[in-house]
Amino acid sequence: MRTAYISDIHGNIHAVESLERDLKDQGVERIICLGDILNFGANPKEVLEWVRENCHTVLRGEHDTFVSQCEDIFITNPEAIKMADWTYDQITDEDREYIASLPKDGEVEGFIITHDEPSVPGSMYFITSLKDAKDTFPCFSEQICFYGHTHIPLIFVKDKDSIKLIRDVSECRIEEGKQYLISVGSVGQPRDRDPRLSYIIHDEDKKKVLVRRVEYDYEKAAKEILNKGLPTLFAAAITKKL
Predict the structure, then answer these.
(1) How many angstroms separate the CA atoms of 85 and 149, rounded?
(2) What is the CATH number of the domain that holds 180?
(3) What confidence score (pLDDT) does residue 242 get?
């Protein structure tokens, strides 16, 4: 079984189009979406429809919660709030009900999945450092936790009492006796100064994860944000011109 773990699409349909082609090329059999489908991008409705039609399991991220207004959440960035208000108007009541029905975490084949972190799903805590990983590993007993939210592909490996961070690799073997915290990166808005979309493939038969980086027309995605009169911040974010 080859399972794709995707996250943080953020309304970017141009990235999704390239993602879909790569999923087919890679022989992916199942897609798990770890949330933040909406906000920041110019095509929220199209992206939400793609996720509903193609993903086996879908989680709700904090921006999905904020846009749909399905529960109280604290976000202070005025540009994100402005974008969320616009995004709210692009989706239907049925869409908002669907988003409200999504969980914040779960399990797939005995592995933990969450949008942000496994101890308190929905906390919006970022796991990006060795200290973060050290604090998080005791919160789950399963071998692997796949998560999103960071917008950066990261692999933390716990072997007995040691923890190491692996980044900038194309694949990592899953070994018995070790635990893994795997940040799957972002489809719609990577934040590691590499504009290519990122996601993870877990090849369960070969016991390895593949870190995929895929080109897409991010200039076109940025132009559409600007053409719709949306905050320039989010066009700059995907073209790395911040």
Answers:
(1) 21
(2) 3.60.21.10
(3) 44
